[in-house]
Amino acid sequence: xxxxxxxxxxxxxxxxxxxxxxxxxxxxxxxxxxxxxxxxxxxxxxxxxxxxxxxxxxxxxxxxxxxxxxxxxxxxxxxxxxxxxxxxxxxxxxxxxxxxxxxxxxxxxxxxxxxxxxxxxxxxxxxxxxxxxxxxxxxxxxxxxxxxxxxxxxxxxxxxxxxxxxxxxxxxxxxxxxxxxxxxxxxxxxxxxxxxxxxxxxxxxxxxxxxxxxxxxxxxxxxxxxxxxxxxxxxxxxxxxxxxxxxxxxxxxxxxxxxxxxxxxxxxxxxxxxxxxxxxxxxxxxxxxxxxxxxxxxxxxxxxxxxxxxxxxxxxxxxxxxxxxx
Length: 326
Description:
Blueprint lengths: L1 E8 L8 E8 L6 E10 L2 H8 L14 E9 L11 E5 L13 E5 L3 E3 L6 H4 L3 H14 L6 E5 L4 H12 L3 E6 L2 H9 L3 E4 L10 H4 L1 E6 L4 H9 E9 L9 H5 L3 E4 L4 H5 L3 H16 L9 E4 L3 H9 L7 E4 L3
């Protein structure tokens, strides 16, 4: 057992509760590795856990689901990773698993993969949660080559990865965004794009029958719109179903609705290996030039409280990674 510095939440509340401290870190057990943290990726769920809105704060009080770093110790039974490997994954920061806002982190090796070499190790921390969420949503939707996919909120973290994964699979992608500037960015990446309010008008012929597959990345009114623009018998996936919805359209069109919660394997222990396997495959595709990684802003871990405040004030528009600076 050794002691390492970390950013800790001792009691839930505003961003002011984030404080620098120390935690005790054991040696890795069977199936685990110890990682020297390079960077932690910021995700909105971090603010919800910190505020107590998502009651899944881990015992150490250390947030940070996404991590990148170097393996410095390996537990028994781990064969796909070794000391010295650069790795990344969505590996903690929730109940049962300490987070990445620390100098070192104990991780279930099944949740990790060797990081892509085509991007910096710090940038790799921006990938796991959003990319895995997009992957799980697309796996549920299972769009076919002759079908159309609509991504509601295509310029966000999950949306950008859904576009990349779908395009790599030769799926025709449509997308919505909240501003003309972001719509133009989507168009430049090969997406048929328009504002959220114009989802039904993205294609003249599709407006009559709707989309075969719809991914909603917001919830609320966005999910209601997704149900409206879906074709009869379509597949609809959402990453935020925590609300009360009118499912009249879903029933009238015999839609299939998928709720995607990618943190479930971290909370239950079931299905973790699939996350690491996906990230390993993704690393290969990134290094082969098949998929481009969206660039994240790089901050320091000591900026974590300010990053939380900026997100909650609606001022954080892009992905952020926080480099360890203890």
